[in-house]
Amino acid sequence: MIAKEFLDMLGQKSVIREIFAYGSERAKEIGYENVFDYSLGNPSVPAPKEFADKIIELLTNEDPMTIHGYSPSLGIPSVRQAVADSLNRRFQMNYTMEHIFMTSAAASAIAHALRCVTVPGDEVITFAPYFSEYVPYITKTGAKLKVVPADTESFQINFEAFDEIMNEKVMAIVINTPNNPSGSVYSEETLKKLAAYLEEKEQQYSHPIYIISDEPYREIVFNGDKAPYVAKYYKNTLTCYSFSKSVSLPGERIGYIAVGPECEGAEVLADMCGQISRGIGHNCPSSLIQLALPSILDKTSDLSVYETNKNILYKALTDMGFECVEPGGTFYMFPRALEPDAKAFCNKALKYDLLLVPGDGFECAGHFRMAYCIPTEKVERSLTAFEKLVKEYK
Questions:
Q1: How much is the pTM?
Q2: pLDDT above 90 covers what percent of the chain?
Q3: Given the DSSP bridges, would you call strands 255-259 and 237-242 parallel, antiparallel or unpaired?
Q4: Are residues 230 and 361 in the same domain?
Q5: Are the C-beta atoms of residues 118 and 143 closer than 8 Å to each other?
Q6: pLDDT > 70 fraction of the chain, expressed in percent and rounded
Q7: What pLDDT, in 10s, does the model give residues 288-335?
Q8: Phi first, then psi: what are they for 212, rounded to 5°?
């Protein structure tokens, strides 16, 4: 008999992926340049040249067994050390190689981190709006997901609602800052308040409560600001990172977990990830890609186009009458739809070849997400389509 649990998931496919697939088919009919596809967060700028140069160098000069052979279960030691050194330089931390576990990007990092600190029956809290794939990441561990409703005025943490669902069964909090889908960046004030609250609850419940910090957009921050590094504010933090967004390597599937050096269990958690891999078939990322990473650890792609696109869209859409919290980072915007039913709104947008994602899947009904990682000229041309859509509501 086939597994009914996963068979049932076929009826719960990603709305984002389905809209993207629609856009691909529509592009065959009218041309890609005429489809304003704001559905998928696929970076639109190239990776730093140093990465390609390093790949070529490795393929040309390195021993084939080194670049194509299995890496150790926890990742290549020199790469783990390089990641630790980079984090220490940039955020004044004191990681060592033993705190780093190399993963197949942030999805794998979160899946491992959850299994490190929860058992079936535990509870995990996250804050709306949140990336919808957190649901299978969490529930497939046997833990129960609980969601704090969004503060739609700022998309910071709704602490009053958080306190209402907090209880002693909660073992982990998943946060995402800068945030997909809202684009908001948790302030230092928010993180300090969160840390103080969790420290108080740890004392009350007599067990650690871990922050699993999902940080693939950490370097995409606007107005010359920087995203506060979560692990500096709370010791029991497992940082989950992906190189998919900051250096435009989503297809390479590479990232890491960084276990807070003062975290409870810091001496064993990375090693535990190696054992968790045996159960979920992770089996370590590409040796070649790992070996190329040190060339770009302190670099990013040219991310300026995302801020340019944000500025254009935010001004134009708010001038048209859309309500929107201005993004502080990422390449997402999360305006309020022009009717209560965001799904209906996004369906109407398809008439103008605008591909928008309803906020329902992020547990924030009435909003829609735009992934504006597309060419700026296409952003500008899409404004006419938005104007036509707005006229339907006037």
A1: 0.95
A2: 89
A3: antiparallel
A4: no
A5: yes
A6: 99
A7: 999 999 999 999 999 999 999 999 999 999 999 999 999 999 999 999
A8: -100, 105
- The reply to whether 280 and 376 lie within a common domain is no
For the cut 80, the answer to whether the pLDDT of residue 373 exceeds it is: yes
d(CA 116, CA 96): 19
DSSP 283: -
What is the rounded distance in angstroms from the CA atom of residue 337 to the CA atom of residue 274?
Answer: 44
Q: Are strands 237-242 and 144-148 parallel, antiparallel or unpaired?
A: unpaired
Q: What is the pLDDT of residue 13?
A: 66
User: Are residue 261 and residue 145 in the same domain, yes or no?
Assistant: yes
Please give the full DSSP string across 158-179, using - where no structure is assigned.
-HHHHHHH--TTEEEEEEESS-
Nearest to 300 by CA among 48, 120, 34, 132: 48
pLDDT recorded at residue 213: 98
CA separation for the pair 228, 211 (Å, rounded)? 14
CB burial of residue 320 (10 Å; 0-12, 13-18, 19+): middle
Nearest Cα residue to 332 out of 254, 216, 242, 251: 216
For 196-201, which contacts have Cβ atoms below 8 Å and span 24 or more sequence positions? 197/159, 197/162, 197/163, 198/173, 198/234, 198/236, 199/234, 201/166, 201/170
Which residues make Cβ contacts (< 8 Å) with residue 60, sequence separation at least 6?
A: none
Q: What is the CA radius of gyration of the chain?
A: 21
Q: Give the range of the structural domain holding residue 312, as residue numbers without chain letter.
A: 4-47+301-392
Looking at the structure, do residues 69 and 14 belong to the same domain, yes or no? Answer: no
* Same domain for 243 and 108: yes
Please, what's the b/e burial string for 29-64 (b: 16 or more CB within 10 A of its CB; e: otherwise)? Answer: eeeeeebbbbbbbbbbbebbeebeebbeebeeeeee
Q: How far apart are CA 282 and CA 331, in angstroms?
A: 29
